[in-house]
# Entry
Amino acid sequence: MIDALTDHKQDQRAMWAAGDYAAFAPLVAEVGERLVARAGVRPGATVLDAACGTGNVAIPAALTGARVTGVDLTPEHFPAARARAAAAGVDVDWVEGDVEALPFEDDTFDIVLSVFGCMFAPRHAVAAAELARVLRPGGRLGICAFTPDGAGGDFFRTLGAIAPPPPEFAENPLAWGDPAHVRSLFGDLELAFERASYAERFASLDDAVERYTTTFGPVVALGGAALADDLRALFEHHASDGGTTVRYDYLVTLSVAT
# Structure
């Protein structure tokens, strides 16, 4: 199990390092900004952005005056994250680390956030326990995850159809979009759920396919060209405005620690 888990983590790191996530991240940036506002991030608060990528949550959180740490399994994202933070005029502490084994003491953060990040940790209960462990009593947890239905669910099922089968211990990331599942992970926290959506906008349908097949790590790692036709069909099905806008549904989980 340990060797299989280690191998899986290495595969995950390589997958997310593929492509150019810094070029992809602006498509979903509004979700991080919304969560920072919804979670009530304030000046002086200590904030963790778990599975931070290139800083879509960490940077807007730091702009409020909070003291922010971003942690990610894939440190290849950090040069772009540092450049974005410098351009925004904020300081963020970027730390290489695993959401399933966070390198922080108990009760470290006032606010723990994750946007389309912790959902990809293979063992959901382990990741949830770590997020709760580093959250201070009375702190705030905020998580955004794609719902199983809609464009997000269809997208990840499209990838799963050609990807190698995951190891037995790796749970479905889309389960984080199910309130019942999330509630089962955080038994000691009072949770509230909201359903939201955001739009990814492209110059054209060709632009959408090109962006995903050249910049989004999981698609690039699978061989972007092999997915181009399937992605085109998916985007055609879900797109509006002549194929230039694709809307994704996601679940927002918010909690107040006790």
User: Anything to note?
Assistant: The beta strands are 46-50, 67-72, 92-96, 109-115, 135-146, 190-201, 239-240, 245-256.
